[in-house]
Design goal:
The chain starts with 8 loop residues before the first strand and ends with a strand. It has four domains: 9-55 and 689-800, no CATH class; 63-281 and 609-627, Immunoglobulin-like (Sandwich); 287-307 and 505-601, no CATH class; 317-492 and 659-672, von Willebrand factor, type A domain (Rossmann fold). The strands form eight sheets. It has an eight-stranded mixed sheet with strand order 7-6-11-4-3-14-17-16. Strands 21, 22, 23, 24, 25, 26, 27 and 35 form an eight-stranded mixed sheet that branches. Strands 8-33-9-10-5-34 form a six-stranded mixed sheet. By secondary structure, the chain is α+β, with helices and mostly antiparallel strands. It contains 13 helices and 38 strands.
Length: 801
């Protein structure tokens, strides 16, 4: 696809209006009154599409390249990310770029290069770092600020990039690799997927405003280059090294060393890079490492657990499947999710029980009165219920979790909760808290579906639910991951794990207690120790065959200055645990401890940031702020930003007597801390499955006045065709006779908003259809302050098949 030239961004924000009365609202939907309102009234923190316009004064695409250099030594990955910003316009810029990172990243350094000058960044408390950056920006000094918005979402601000300037920013992080089932996996996220939010933009805290980010339309490649190189250096010979996500070239310089390069870097930045490898003989790199530091000593224990053995006990299990069918799941992610459900549900045993809850803006449950026996007929009913969903609407995950976890329990059955989602939400802490407080005696297994899932949500849900996280990046992995899931729930590898220290003076151990192991992964502990290395570490647990014990001797030879990474890895794990605790009950003491850890170990946290300031004044402090547009993750449709099928297309419901449908099922206010309130009662709405679309809609711009390019406007309106078509299809189902064409005429004001209350100029007998179309058009928001963009006339041609 040919990209439009990098001119000033004219932003089409798909902040969809509420559609028909009683319908669910898709992602970003905003209720509008018929009276006048400001542009910010009732607007949520929604992502939006960017359309490149005609003003060449400002470079709307300042990020020119990103390069990741990865060095894996044993079980530690060191990553350096280099971002290059270049101003090809005529105005001084501030560039804002939201980008992802590993959920386990210990970000410990940043530097900025301006011309020949290299400026090392300082770690500061978040507010102080922001103030330092804003002051330097005001003074005309080139400056950069790196903030953590989520453990896996970072934001880079670079200010006072002069015309013709090139500014390079480097950040470095470490992470610990833990194999699962003898396979090591390194993941480098490359793009942040669009996050659904129903939080009003007005008054939103600064920590949430990153959600309001521009995106390129579906299928459009990143506007910046993305390069990647990985060097793997193992203590044991390598085997089966490959990437399931990208085409790579692998060169070996010996049996233990490999170098990996991307074959095609043009579209590399629209999905997570995944590298998997195993070691010869299906071994894993285990043992004890010690680091004798200047003021503190650190240790890392990685201990291989026993082999998994299937339990002889036949236990009835109750499976609750919670499946995301929102707009961001439309297409490949939802089809992969359906394939996963097919694999898992088909293999349920006759003594098991099943229930299904589907969610988007609203949610629907297979059986409100309790789970059903996993008979052949009921399994077919459950699969038909799931397969009927096309994907559409917002991602209201909290009401879905609350309703599913409150479903009646099956006596004498072990409950297993399975969640399938891409995780494109901003309510991770609330979801973790809800799971921890409402799950009860059950285990939760989240499946992340997609090429760039929100791993912070997926992994955090697994920790909160004492389960195991799965990520399926392509349809071919559904069967494998379903089989792995069935294997895990047959019996934990090791349960009731306890660790004792015999003559070894360990303290500040992370984690403080080890959960049951479902996957065959190492037992991993980080901590500090006092005195000389001596004694032993004793690990005990319970397997399906009986008691288990391993003893690891501590000897001075295990200590080495080469293990300095343990210092930062320990601090990162301590910060993660404190963050988990704060989700249950926030305490100022924990916030202070996280802040102090970030400052002491020079680590990025929720409360500490990196800031670099060039001492040379280079501009007058007058800057144009540009948000770098992101590509949609591969396989994700425009519905992730524009919402889903609007009015007239409710979720499919199960057969009469089995299920009930909750329209938008709002989270009860009592959820704030307890989350135990019974869900909203089901509606008596007639059961309807989404029909196949019979309306075909095409558009033609017949008149365009003002400063917009026709190609840019046409591209923006074409992205809105699914919603416009759905309005017409809903009217057709109600018996409305549709005209052959509908004319829309609307004016874009200097504030970027659509001025017309009734942009539909063709007389329509059906008021609901006119409102549906008008609300969609009035939801268009263009950004080009101070410039009147003029009038647009569009002809919609309709055919009914």
């Amino acid at each position: 696809m040919r990209l439009l030239p990098p001119r000033v961004a004219v932003i089409l924000s798909l902040l969809l209006a509420g559609l028909l009365p009683g319908s669910w609202q898709p992602l970003g939907a905003q209720p509008r009154s018929d009276g006048p309102q400001t542009q910010t009234q009732d607007r949520t923190l929604s992502p939006y599409f960017v359309v490149l316009g005609a003003d060449s004064e400002t470079d709307a695409l300042p990020l020119k390249s990103t390069r990741a250099e990865v060095k894996i030594a044993g079980t530690v990955a060191g990553v350096k990310i280099t971002q290059v910003y270049r101003n090809q316009g005529k105005k001084t810029l501030e560039a804002i770029y939201v980008f992802p990172g590993s959920t386990r990243a210990a970000v410990h350094a940043m530097r900025m290069t301006v011309g020949e000058r290299i400026i090392e960044a300082e770690i500061m408390e978040r507010q102080q770092a922001r103030q330092t950056y804003e002051q330097a920006k005001k003074e005309g000094k080139t400056t950069s600020l790196l903030e953590q918005q989520r453990p896996n979402v970072f934001q880079m601000n670079v200010a006072n990039i002069l015309p013709g300037d090139e500014v390079k920013v480097e950040l470095q992080y470490l992470e610990l690799l833990e194999p699962r089932d003898q396979v090591y996996e390194f993941v480098l996220p490359t793009v942040v997927g669009p996050r659904y939010s129903n939080m009003p933009a007005k008054g939103a805290p600064d920590t949430e405003k990153w959600v309001q980010n521009p995106y390129l339309p579906q299928g459009q490649a990143p506007t910046y280059e993305y390069a990647l190189s990985v060097e793997v250096n193992s203590a044991l010979p390598l085997a089966q090294l490959a990437s399931p996500s990208h085409d790579v070239e692998v060169k070996y310089s010996g049996p233990k060393v490999a170098r990996v390069q991307l074959k095609d870097e043009r579209t590399a930045g629209n999905r997570d890079f995944v590298l998997r490898y195993s070691l010869a003989g299906n071994r894993i790199d285990t043992g004890l490492l010690l680091y004798p530091g200047k003021d503190e000593n650190f240790f890392l224990l990685m201990l291989e657990p026993p082999a998994q053995v299937k339990s002889d006990a036949v236990v009835s299990r109750e499976y609750i499947f919670i499946v995301d069918v929102s707009g961001s799941m439309h297409g490949f992610p939802l089809e992969t999710s359906k394939a996963l459900m097919q694999e898992v549900i088909t293999n349920l045993r006759p003594q098991d029980f099943i229930n299904v809850l589907l969610f988007e803006s609203g949610n629907a449950v297979l059986s409100q009165t309790g789970s059903l026996p996993a008979s052949a007929a009921n399994k077919e009913q459950a699969l038909a219920f799931i397969k009927a969903q096309p994907g559409g609407g917002g991602t209201e995950i909290l009401p879905a979790l609350q309703r599913a976890l409150a479903l009646p329990r099956t006596p004498q059955a072990s409950r297993i909760v399975v969640v399938a989602t891409d995780g494109y939400v901003r309510v991770e802490p609330e979801a973790f808290e809800l799971i921890q407080q409402s799950l009860g005696e059950a285990n939760l297994f989240p499946f992340g579906i997609g090429t760039a899932v929100n791993r912070h949500l997926i992994e955090g849900m697994a920790r909160a639910g004492l389960g195991e996280a799965f990520v399926i990046a392509n349809p071919g992995e559904a069967a494998r991951e379903a089989a792995r899931f069935r294997q895990y729930i047959d019996s934990p590898v090791l349960g009731k794990i306890k660790v004792a220290f015999d003559g070894f003076q360990a303290y500040d151990v992370e984690p403080a207690a080890l959960p049951d192991l479902f996957a065959r992964r190492p037992i991993t502990m980080l901590g500090k120790y006092r005195g000389a290395p001596a004694g032993a570490i004793v690990v005990q647990g319970q397997t399906a065959q009986g008691p288990y014990e391993q003893k690891v001797q501590v000897v001075p030879g295990q200590a080495s200055p080469d293990n300095a990474a343990l210092r930062l890895l320990w601090a990162r794990h301590r910060i993660m645990r404190l963050a988990d605790l704060n989700r249950l009950k926030e305490k100022d003491q924990r916030i202070k401890e996280v802040t102090d850890l970030g400052l002491k170990y020079s680590l990025m946290t929720q409360y500490t940031s990196f800031v670099a300031v060039d001492k040379v004044k280079r501009a007058d402090g007058q800057v144009v702020t540009v948000k770098q547009p992101l590509p949609l993750p591969a396989g994700v449709s425009n519905l992730a930003v524009g919402g889903g099928l609007p009015a007239g297309a409710p979720m499919a419901r199960p057969a009469p007597g089995l299920g009930e449908f909750a329209l938008r099922a709002p989270m009860p206010r009592q959820y704030a801390k307890k989350a135990r309130t019974t869900p909203s009662p089901a509606t008596d709405q007639e059961q309807v499955s989404p029909p196949a679309a019979r309306v075909k809609l095409s558009l033609q711009i017949t008149r365009l006045k003002g400063g917009l390019e026709q190609a840019a406007v046409e591209q923006a309106l074409t992205a809105k065709l699914p919603e416009l078509t759905a309005c017409c299809e809903a009217a057709r189902k109600r018996g409305v006779k549709l005209p052959g064409e509908i004319i829309l005429t609307f004016t874009i004001g200097a504030d970027g908003g659509v001025r017309d209350k009734k942009p539909v100029t063709t007389p329509l007998a059906d008021a609901s259809l006119a409102k549906c179309l008008s609300d969609l058009v009035r939801g268009l928001i263009f950004s080009n302050p101070g410039k009147k963009l003029g009038q647009v006339t569009v002809k919609l041609s309709l055919t009914v098949s």
